[in-house]
Amino acid sequence: MFCPRCGSQNTDTTKYCRQCGLPLTQLTGYVATGGTAPLQPLPPLQQASSALSKMTEGLSPKQKMVIENSAFRLLPAIFGALGELIPFAVRLAPVAGVMSDFRHFMVRLQLQG
């Protein structure tokens, strides 16, 4: 068993992490705050996969592959467009009367990069 806080390896019967002391016996689901919470069941993927199945119903495997490849080819264009829109939105913020710390953050990032 690996400790979710520090990542050190412990035996399955260990009650507390040997590195950081996190109680491992009561651990049911670790959250980012450093505490524990009961695990929530993941939502079923059946709805998403059934919708995708309906959209590609009747297509040959080759046609499905072409659609998948096309979707992956579009990703750089989508992320490229987002990269152009974010600086544009930052330039518009003062015009809209919004003095945002985000603009200063972006300027600092550009100066560092």
Give your account of this protein's structure.
This protein has 113 residues and is mainly α. It has 2 domains: 1-38, no CATH class; 56-112, no CATH class. It is 50% helix and 0% strand. The chain is built from 3 helices and no strands. The protein is flat, with a radius of gyration of 24 Å. Mean pLDDT is 70; it is low at 28-33.
Residue windows where pLDDT falls under 50 for at least 5 positions:
28-33
Report the radius of gyration as a whole number of Å: 24 Å
Q: Into which percent range does the helicity of residues fall?
A: 40-55%
DSSP helix count? Answer: 3
| Biggest sheet character | none
Morphology call:
flat
How many beta-strand runs?
Answer: 0
Record keyword descriptors for this entry.
mainly alpha; 2 domains
SSE inventory with pairings:
Elements: H1 46-55, H2 61-95, H3 101-112
Care to give the gist of this entry?
The protein has helices at residues 46-55, 61-95, 101-112.
